[in-house]
Amino acid sequence: MMVIASGAAVLALLALTGLSVYKPRGVTPYGARKQGTTAAER
Prior knowledge:
mainly alpha
């Protein structure tokens, strides 16, 4: 039982790490506003 819980915890940590590192391609709407461009100008 302890092995299953430990394995689940490791998988959860790996998943969260992957999500925190992932960056979508392109500029987010927030980034576009910061740069002063709109979606139509890209």
